[in-house]
Amino acid sequence: MKQHHSLPSNTRIDTHCHLFNKKVLSWKLLIDFVQSRVNRSRVNRYMKITNIDLIDCPSSTFNEIKRALNFLKIGMQPTSEDVYKTLVETEKGYAVVPLMFDLDYCVKGASADFQNEILAAYNRILADDRKELLQIKQGLDYLIDYSSSNNEDDILKEIDQLVQIIDTLLEPKRQTNEFGLDSLHKVAPFLDQENQLVDLQKKYPDTVFPFYAVDPRRKENYTLENGTYNLSPILNRLAINGGHFYGIKLYTPNGYSPADPMLMALYRYCEQHAIPITAHCSGGGFASFAKTVDIQGLIYRNSKIREHSGNITFKHYKVTDKKRVHEKAQMLNHPLIWEKVLEKYPNLTLNLAHFGCSEDTGEWSQHIIRLMKQYPNLYTDFSCVAEKATLNNMYKTYYSEAEPTIKKRFLYGSDFYLNMLFIDNMRQYICQFERIFSDAEMKEIAEINPRRFLALD
Ligand SMILES: [Zn+2]
Questions:
Q1: What is this structure's pTM?
Q2: 60 C-alpha to center of ligand 1: Å?
C-alpha cells in the first residue's frame, strides 16, 4: 500500500527538483561554479576568434556572477527544508519530487590531484572575477545603508548573507580543506541527504515525494549471494513498503551502465510494482571525476552498443576538461542503451529526464520520442530548459507534433536549484512555460501526467 497522502487532483507537481543542503552542495557547488566560469572564458575566447564584439561585455558577466551568487545563496542554506521553502515561495501550492544525488560515487576514484586541480581552477577564476565581485559588494553596501535607514530587516538579513558569500569567495584558498568541507561532513553526506528528505516527507506528506538515488557500486544497498541480488535495503525505503521514497533516481554518467546487472534486478521489481525511475539523460550535467571506472553492463562506444565488464579508461577526466561530461554521458547514458533496458522491461515506468537535451543535435530527443511510441510507460521531462528559445523549439518540433498518447508522457520539471545557474529566478522559469504551453497543456504536463507517473492514485 502507498503511504497515505491527500494531494488534491488540481495540484501542480514539479517532477524534477533538488533540495540539496549545504552539506551536499559543497563539492558540487564549487565544481559548478568553477565549470560555469571556465565555460564563460571559453565562450569569450571563441568570440574573440570569430571577431564578435561581446568580449568582456560587462552586463552579461555581471549577470552571470549574480546568478552564481544567487545559486550559492540558495544552496548554502543549512537544511533541505530551507531550500524547499525557497522553491515553494514561487511554486506556491505545488507538490515537488526532490531527487537525491550520490555525490560520493561521482567523485569516487578521482585522482589525488583532483582536489588540487579544483583549487587551482578556483583561484584562477577568482582572480578573473575579482573586479566584478567587488563591484557587486559595493552595490550591496549601498543597499545596506538604504535598508537600514528604512528599517527593512528582512532585506538587510538577505544582503548580509550575500556579502558573507562574496567575502568567502574573495578569500583566496590555499589548501583544499579551506573549502570547509571536512568539518561539514560529520554525518556521511549521502545519509544526511536521505535523512533530511525523509524528515521533509514526514512533515509534508501530501506535497513532497522524494526519489532515492541508487548507484550499483554502493554495496551497502544490496547483497549478492549465489548470483541473486537482495535489494531489500533499497526496497524498504520505498513508500509502498512503508518507507518515504516514491521512486528511484539514476545518474549513470557518475560511472555505471544503465544495464548494470544489479540495476536489471531492480528494474524487474520496479516494473512489477509500477515504481517510477527518473534517469538523468542529457549530454551535460555531472559525470564521474575518475579517469578509470570499473563498468559492468552495456555501454555505447564507436556508435555501437556493446557488453562490457571491467575497467574503462576515459580520455577526458580533468576537472576543467569540458569534454569530460560529454564523453561519459555518451558512453553511459545514451538513449540506445536505455532502449536495451526497455526491450527487457517494456512496461518499466521510466523518465528519461531533460528530454535528452544535448548541446549539439536533437539526436537524443528523437530517440526518446521514437522509444515513447514503442514503450507505454516511457516518460520525459522538460527540466532545466531555462532558455526560452530552446523550450519553444522543443515545444514546436516535438511536443505540439506528438500524438495524444505521447503527449501524456511529457512532464514539467524545474531542476531547481541547479537551474538557477541559468536563469534569474523561478518566476521567470515558470512564466516561460506558461507562455509557451496553453492552460490545458500545462494541466497535462504539470498535473495529470506527473500524477500518473508517480502512481499517486
Ligand atoms: Zn536534475
A1: 0.86
A2: 25
Cα of 420 to ligand 1 centre, how many Å?
A: 12
The tens digit of pLDDT for each residue in 90-129 reads 999 999 999 998 877 887 776 666 667 766 766 776 676 6
Contact 216, 259 (CB under 8 A): no
Residue 419 C-alpha to ligand 1 middle, in angstroms? 9
**First-to-last CA distance in the chain?**
11
Residues 193, 80 contacting (CB under 8 angstroms): yes
The answer to whether residues 417 and 83 touch, using CB atoms and an 8 Å cutoff, is yes
Question: Confidence class of residue 30 from pLDDT cuts 50, 70 and 90?
Answer: low
Least confident of 185-194, 224-233, 282-291: 185-194
What is the residue-wise DSSP string for 219-275? GGG-EEETTEEE-HHHHTTBGGGTSSB-EEEE-GGGT--TT-HHHHHHHHHHHHHT-
Q: How far is the CA of 203 from the centre of ligand 1 (A)?
A: 23
Q: What is the Å distance from ligand 1's center to 426 Cα?
A: 15
Is 13-21+77-112+188-453 CATH 3.30.70.100? no
339/336 Cα distance (integer angstroms): 5
Instruction: Kindly write down the DSSP assignment for every residue of 143-159, as one continuous string.
Output: HHHHHHHTT-HHHHHHH
Question: What would the grid cell of residue 138 be?
Answer: 559595493
Q: Which pLDDT value is given to residue 411?
A: 98
267-283, pLDDT tens digit by residue?
999 999 999 999 999 88
Run of H or E including 294: strand 292-301
Query: How far apart are the CA of 280 and the centre of ligand 1, in A?
Result: 7
Domain map of the chain by residue range?
13-21+77-112+188-453
Distance CA 150, CA 209 (A): 41
Ligand 1 centroid from CA 285, angstroms: 8
Higher-confidence residue of 161 and 50: namely 161
In this structure, of 73-87, 120-134, 357-371, the range with the lowest mean pLDDT score is 120-134
pLDDT in tens, 250-259: 999 999 999 9
Residues 141, 113: Cα–Cα separation, whole Å: 38
The residues whose Cβ lies within 5 A of ligand 1, an ion, are: 415
- The pLDDT of residue 125: 67
